Amino acid sequence: MTETLIFICAGTMAAATPILFAAMGELVVERTGVLNLSIEGMMATGAAAAFAVATVYESSLLGFAVATISAGLLSVVFATLTLIFLANQVAAGLAVGILGLGVSALIGKKHEGFTIEPLKSVDWGFLSDIPVVGRILFQHDFVLYAGILLIAIVWFVLTRTKLGLIIKAVGEAPEAAHAIGYPVILIRFLAVFFGGAMAGLGGAYLTLAYTPLWAEGLVAGRGWIAVALVVFGSWRAHRVALGAYLFGAISLLELSIQGLGLAIPSQVLSAAPYVMTIVILVLISRDARQIRLNSPASLGVTYRHQS
Amino acid sequence: MSRLRVEPRVTESVIAQYLVPVVAIVLTLLSGTVLFTFLGKAPSAVLYTFLIEPLTSRFGIGEVLLKMAPLLLIAQGLAIGFRARVWNIGAEGQLIIGGIFASVIAIHYNESESTWILPAMVFAGMLGGIFWASIAAYLRVRFNANEILVTFMLSSVALQILYFLVTGPLRDPDGFNFPQSVVFADSALFGVLIEGTRANTSLLIGLTLSVLAYVFIRHSLPGFKLSVSGAAPRAARYAGFAESQAIWLGLIIGGAAAGLAGVGEVAGPIGQLQRTISPGYGFAGIIVAFLGGLHPIGICLAAFFMAILYVGGDMALISVGIPNAATTIFQGMLLIFYLASYLFVHYRISFQGRAAAT
Amino acid sequence: MMRGLRRVAALFFVGVLTVGAHSASAAELKIGFVYPSPVGDVGWAHELDNGRKAIEAAFGDRVETVVAENIPEGPDASRIMNQMASTGAKMIMLGSFGYMNDGLKLAKKRPDMTFIHASGYKLADNFGNFQTRNYESAYLAGIGAGFVTKSNILGIVAAYPIPEVVGIINAFTMGAQLVNQGVSVKVVWLNSWFDPSKAQESARSLVSQKADVLLSLYQDTPSVVTVAEEMGVYVVPTSSDMKKYAPNHLLVSQQIDWGPHFVEMVKNTLDGNFKGIPYWGGMKEGAVRMESWTPNLSADQMSVINEKTAELKAGAFHPFTGPIVDQAGATKLADGEVIEDGALLGINWLVKGVETKLPD
């Protein structure tokens, strides 16, 4: 039983990481008032590109870099559509997402069904040897720790810095932010790029560290979960991160329960995160004051300079 | 330095409106040409297989019409909501629940040869879609919960419900534990539309709905209200059109249509309930709705075109060896180019300031 | 830039000229292959594709093959096979259980075509199916697992609870019980033929529940195998030899070989005497064989295994020979009774020793 618990705890850290990256990116994007529904496609593109590059050039680092760039490029398409061509964000997100899924399938085609060496764990010296805690916390690869660092950075930037204030101002009241002299479009553009790059990293973690192989459909809805998690976490970094870990734990619990012979249909657990997200969305939305405190007021609304 | 400026047009450009889909298609085909060249295939051969070959044989046309039915239904339903800015992106889930509701009848009365089975399934499927969409409508109206997120997440829940049912309660007891239901009796299947093809009469539902959608938008009061509340929410409120009405109406119509599409699949080409009853029609339907300019006639054309892409994609896979990802890429590019060029319907571009100094 | 454009334009026109040419083919028989997962490097679809290559090697220019890989079971599969049929394929190999109903529908519509379908249970005059007696190899692998396990817990990552898979789980368990009465077996059902990330999560979960031998049952990727190597537990893959993915911890591989059967079916189609038969090839026919036994088994242990291997190859032994008791303790086969093929094809119970229940 303890072994199973350790497995779930340690496994959760890894299972949550791809979603964590994507969700942190999307959090920043949504904070600037842009709803990017193309995360799934960007993760897939990052995942496939990373795997292809890592296979050909035998370098995971290069894989991560290319994933960031390729998904970032895709997000530039989204940003251009929504911010410059003033397209509807929902439609543009779906379009770019579908494009990303197609592109990923094409890039990954040749490498489908093959596998590579996963990332090495970081050597924490004696820390890794601590019973239980060592196995849960100190036997992972460096990207996983980078993910934890990302939570801290996003949290810090959003809550403790001027940049965070600007980002939130742009999301709350783009007209006002523009009037004060902030380049609303540019800030949103950069945020979307950041979001895309992070989604790409998350995807790359799947193919280079977690699974580690590429197959069409490998992302399996994780991008959509990342979008859901931002709502689940009511647009706050620490809650979004918590949601990511919760989701990771549930997905592993689903499999452990089978092995332990418990009779809970696995579908109940699979559906749980979505149901919980809906419940939380209802809870934070029903009170107009609450929702104003949490969600960016201009989320999903096209913004155009009124100069 | 010269500056590009985007200026709103006083009235929407009608010419631009008609040109936009054409431009989008042309740009997509050009990009396709480049893409296939990179893949080392002769682009003309591939494009021929993609766009023309589906229409050169009875089989091909049948497949196109078969594929068109769910796309048409979903897009017509969604477009009505979209016009009112009700963003239902969960048609996939509404389709699944509709398919499940209809299947329950088909499975329960599997022995029956009654002619009422199919109409009952159609009705049940529609109810299923409405039920699933109503959850989102209720949560939006009552609790102000964003319908984009709720409809999307309900799709994921619907998929899990489907998985649960086909691995358990609705599984074929003699099917050796494989997650699928019994094969439906003929009384639970749509008739063949064109002899020798798989195209079935569910397409007629889609076409009927298209006519209804046209009448609804052009000649009915609720249709007018919906359009107004989409185009000018504030004016609509002054005129006493409640936003909540628009939300309910938009979602219910979208859900009903998607539910019907679900019936069309389980009582059509699939003929049973399985783990996969839609290869993403709910999302493709959104593309079709936009590509058709949210207009009933435009949507008919867009659904037809999109169906050709699907069928042509499979043909290209088998005869020219193009990976099926190409179809997905085409879909994505189509909508991207459409959205980009749509700018010119509402805005015009003008140059301002000094001439370029390069 | 201009030159690039010109090249694109030139290719375009060259393409126009060649459009008409590609459909003409000299082959006598066009055969379509539909796989549920990518061909890749190892696994189910890879072995089916090796069967296709065997056909090409045997018949050369007389046949032409078309492949559609990674086709999910569902409405798309049906369109793909219909498309193959309408573009001149006269024979189709359907590589997954879930293609059965769609394939059968098409077979009834096209009596001029022949079909062979993997692991289903429905037949028609022009619609045959094929399976391996993989339970035989699983039994042998089970013996090895019974020898090497220290925790006495074996873990299985399984696809769907269809009879073929249930039979393999039972045989693997009974093989282990032959040499080690105390073993118990845990199963995780994935309800998918191809879900690499869930497969590897399941493998980790089983190891955390003390399983020290894993059976990767029709998982069409090496994910379970690589996890086993990483976590230092033994592993038995199905379909292909996966030694290279677990050089130190591969217990044994169960290698499938479809070549001879496929070639025979194609020959029958060419000769016009195809019959929709159920083919069930085992160790005797060479349809499945053991590869890459671990060197860590002692000579005594290997001799037990070799003896049973010889008996299976000679057809002198059936793993499902009574007494066999199911999970609930009910006697399924009396002492000395051998299961009939019909019963085994529809097997729906797990033997005592398997902890996980069949999903109901």
Structural description of this entry:
The complex is a heterotrimer of chains A (307), B (358) and C (360). In chain A, 73% of the residues lie in helices and 0% in strands. By secondary structure, chain A is an all-alpha fold. The termini of chain A are far apart. Chain B has a domain of 221 residues. Chain B contains 13 helices and two strands, in the order βαααααααααααααβ. In chain B, strands 1-2 form a two-stranded antiparallel ribbon. Chain C is α/β, with parallel strands linked by helices and 360 residues long. Chain C folds into two domains: 131 residues, Rossmann fold (3-Layer(aba) Sandwich); 174 residues, Response regulator (Rossmann fold). Chain C has eleven helices and 14 strands. The relative contact order of chain C is 0.13. In chain C, helix 4 links the parallel strand 3 and strand 4. In chain C, the strands form four sheets. Chain C has a six-stranded parallel beta sheet, with helices on both faces. In chain C, strands 7-6-8-9 form a four-stranded parallel beta sheet, with helices on both faces. Classes of the chains: A mainly alpha (307), B mainly alpha (358), C alpha/beta (360). Chains A and B meet through helix 3, helix 4, helix 10 and helix 12 of A and helix 5, helix 6, helix 11 and helix 13 of B.
Keyphrases for this structure?
heterotrimer; A: mainly alpha; B: 358 residues; mainly alpha; 13 helices; 68% helix; globular; disordered C terminus
Q: What fold name goes in the CATH topology slot of chain A?
A: ABC transporter involved in vitamin B12 uptake, BtuC
| Straight-line N-to-C gap of chain B | 9 Å
Share of residues in strands of chain B: under 5%
In N-to-C order, the SSE pattern of chain A is HHHHHHHHHHHHH
Helices and strands of chain B, in N-to-C order? EHHHHHHHHHHHHHE
Q: Measured on Cα atoms, how large is the radius of gyration of chain A?
A: 19 Å
Proportion of beta-strand residues of chain A: under 5%
Q: Quickly count the helices of chain B.
A: 13
Low-confidence stretches of chain A: none
The top level CATH class name of chain A = Mainly Alpha
Number of helices of chain A: 13
- What structural class is derived from the secondary structure elements of chain A? mainly alpha
Cα-based radius of gyration of chain B, to the nearest Å: 22 Å
Oligomer: heterotrimer
How far from one another are the termini of chain A? 65 Å
Helix percent band of chain A: over 70%
* Largest two-chain interface: A-B, 50 and 46 residues
- Mean pLDDT, all residues of chain B: 87
Q: List the strand order in the largest sheet of chain B.
A: 1-2
| Secondary-structure class of chain B | mainly alpha
Low-pLDDT stretches of chain B = 354-358
